[in-house]
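check this:
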Amino acid sequence: MTWLRCLATGIGLLIAGAAGAQDLQGRDTAGNWRVTHFSAHGIWNTICDERQEQGTLKKRCYIRWVDVYAEAPKFGALFTFVTPQKDASGAHDVMFGPEPGTAFVADGFRIDRAGRTVWQMRDRRCLLWADCSLDEEESAAVLQAMQLGGVLRFEFVGRHGRRFSLEWPLEGFAEAFETYEQQWRKRQ
């Protein structure tokens, strides 16, 4: 039961930190966010939530997927979040969250479709040091590739020295993205 509690705590902290889900005291916790929309599209979740902050209602929407690929005590998870850019330009930020200490193998972070690679991570900060917050141009490129389908592939050595190969099907991502954009426009 202890390892289940550790796993649940780890996933909760991972999700909370990535989505900026700090409580009003700045702690990484889901805090008092109230879910106003949730839908699943394959493995992809579209979520909107809200909370009061200093008398103002703060709203947000995002797409997420969390893959727990290793259980405690050598816990490992990889997540992604798609969020609107803060400037309300209509563009989106994409973040992938590998565990600290993760190193991707050569060509180990890519989207394959119909037997060929259509997008590949080239940012060394992400590939070698697990810092995978993408800039505007790279976010747009990966979002376009993800919406066209295929498989997101990850091959890496985790922080505990074990090698992993993950495949995330992109089936349902285009629908998740469409739902996310519709829901976010309703909240503007």
Remarks:
- Confidence is low (pLDDT under 50) at residues 1-21.
- Helices lie at 2-18, 124-129, 136-147, 173-186.
- The chain has one domain: 2-186.
- Strands lie at 34-41, 44-53, 56-70, 76-84, 92-97, 103-113, 116-120, 132-133, 151-157, 163-169.
